[in-house]
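name: query_chain
kind: protein
chains: 1
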Amino acid sequence: RAFRSPSVVNNFLDQYFLTPIDLPGLPQPFPLATRGIGEAGLRQESLTAWEVGYIGTVSGRTTLGVNLYRNDTEDNINFTRLPNDYDPYTADNPPPGWPFPPAYLTLLAQNGIYLPRTSSQFRNLGPIRHQGIEVFVEHRFGDGVTGYANYSWQDDPKPLPADQPFLISEITIAPRNRVN
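structure:
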């Protein structure tokens, strides 16, 4: 079992990012200032990991190994995108450098298009299950020369029953196949 407390950045981030967006009537993308924020009420992240493996030597110079693992994470701390209508720019509060009349933002909102003022926030997500298999081979050729190969496969993360549902797209997903 392992635990990770939220950092000062996770709790108190308040940072602006420039996000280029294409707007009709402008020859180049408009640099929209969007805000990323922390969350002071984040809970500690916890991980319960199970692993079983085997390592064996073949012919004295070759080592083979296989590991199966399952990791269950609760309250995973992630920097997630917020819906565009969470905290949009309005005619009363247009983005810095807005090149059109502020009323254009009202027209966009009436058509369901919102320009987010706050776009991202740290949130607790989960519980989530990651599981997979890893195999490796190492061979000692002699004279201090060694070769090593590793392959791992990870199943798609599985959301486990949760009080607060989330989208699987909100978490960082490792590649399904990895080779070293």
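note: The helical segments are 8-12, 103-110.
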